[in-house]
Amino acid sequence: MIKNYLQWAENKPTQKSSTHFNQKGAAILATDLLKSYFEKGLIRQARNLFDEMPERDVVAWTTMISGYTYCSEYTHAWCVFVDMVKSENEPPNAFTISSVLKACKGMKSVFCGGLVHALAIKRRLVEGFIYVDNALMDIYATCGVSMRDACVVFHDIKEKNVVSWTTLIAGYTHRGNSSRALQIFREMLLEGAEMNPHSISIAVRACASIGSENLGRQIHNAVIKQGFESDLPVMNSILDMYCRCGCLSEAKKYFNEMSEKDLITWNTLIAGYERSDSIEALFIFLQMESDGFSPNCFTFTSLIAACANLAALHCGQQVHGGIFCRGLNGNLELSNALIDMYAKCGNIFDSHKIYSEMSCRNLVSWTSMMIGYGAHGYGKEAVELFDEMVRSGIRPDRVVFMAVLSACSHAGLVDQGLRYFNCMMDDYHIKPNQEIYGCVVDLLGRAGRVEEAYQLIRSMPFMADESVWGALLGACKAHNLSKLGKLAAKKALALRPNMVETYVMLSNIYAAEGEWGEAARMRKMMKRAGCKKEAGRSWIEVQNQVYSFVVGNKKGSHIEWVNEVLELPGRHMKEAGYVPELDCLIHDQEDGT
DNA sequence: ATAGGGTTAG
């Protein structure tokens, strides 16, 4: 190996005029070669060369550490650093420290980061060595328990630069504290630090995650003014911001104007459309493929979610096939999306199959499976899964409590559900939000414990919103409690006067009591509030086509045989002795919906 | 000759 590089070195003209190699020149050339080996992914060759080098100076050691890190071999990088410190010949310099800190970040080891920090203090390589200070901030911000240590380092930096600010902002954003991140972004501008593409893209991401369209637009204007429109990460984050703020047509406009696009650009737009127009998301994917891009895990996750939203089982299965072909089926997020898709398409067994074949799971995996079970009426299974999850050492969050509570509600496991509600507050100190209260009201209400549900609302530490009152209203309607029902409906309407369902329900309560005048008055109020009831729409997939239909749908090319299919469950229900309860039907409006 | 922060997935 060493012969190789000497041969190579001899053929390469040196910048220096010296005609022969001294040791120093050879070492420099060896380090050069070391670097280019890593850049080509030739890790083995780099290691052999390093092992054969007679003199290894601090630069060579540092090149090894950053080379391994470049190739994502973080543990190897760390081992080189340990060997270097042990050998005591070449003490690490600021370059070494910042390189090895990046390796610590790759290992997600704040412990190793702390050791390096201690060594850096001992060798007086902190405060004033901006690369070291910024790298320290970065490891504490990304891997620390909180932002505290990162802040301590930040405040001790006398001359902060854009990188210091950006690292701090990114730390808060990635931890989900985007408003703090944006505060710091403002502070940065006030202190006179100039924004650059890096700081802009993280600030825009923060805007996107809290839906701050206003600030997002301001930053977009600044981007145009300063000519950063050609920077891909910047434009991708702006695209994402418009998507998350619900400005899809604008997002598409800027997408079309982009001269250069990468896979992330396409993925961002597909994910944006998936949330509100899943069919369009699938069309954009087809365009993406004809543009020569191949899908990755991110693309597939959005496509699977789109199929889930559309309840398009066949399409979802085809996408699943594509995932398999590319060997992407081990991806955690993708598996989570598949669990959800199969459950939403009515195929709970395939959902469970994906779940059970996963080699590692996160909170989302468990939650998706529980939501699936709950929606299919498998309350007991959801409850068992929840207990198993807690036993396996995963700490539940509000979303998974929501999943298990809603499963209990649908399966009529009232006391079980109430136990989880109390456990959430007492053992995990999670404060219930509107959604959780709504779920518990629903849980009590379905079981006929409507008075208890009302008392729960009265005991809430904040004002119940229209969805909580709506849950109570539903319970009142199911159990014919007209007095409390009227109260719930009025409360809900006071909070959201344009909720059609509430008017219809209230009107129906009056109608059921024979108070036709009041019932008609509600209808008029509803018209005045300018709202119209969306017809309840159902859909069915037959032979790779999704058909949607409403009650009383008569014309259409395919509706006749869809109706035929639909008669089957009706017949089964009749055979089982089911008698429809006619006074529960929502009274039709004049326009026939 | 060796070191930096940014974009997509519930």
From TrEMBL:
Which PROSITE patterns does the UniProt entry name for this protein? PPR
Spans of the PPR repeats?
57-91, 161-195, 231-265, 362-396, 499-533
Q: Which keywords label this protein?
A: Repeat
Any one GO MF term held by the record is:
RNA binding
Entry's Gene3D superfamilies? Tetratricopeptide repeat domain (1.25.40.10)
- GO-annotated biological processes: RNA modification
Query: A Pfam family in this protein?
Result: E_motif
Query: PANTHER family from the xrefs?
Result: PENTACOTRIPEPTIDE-REPEAT REGION OF PRORP DOMAIN-CONTAINING PROTEIN, PENTATRICOPEPTIDE REPEAT-CONTAINING PROTEIN
What is the designated name of this protein?
Pentatricopeptide repeat-containing protein
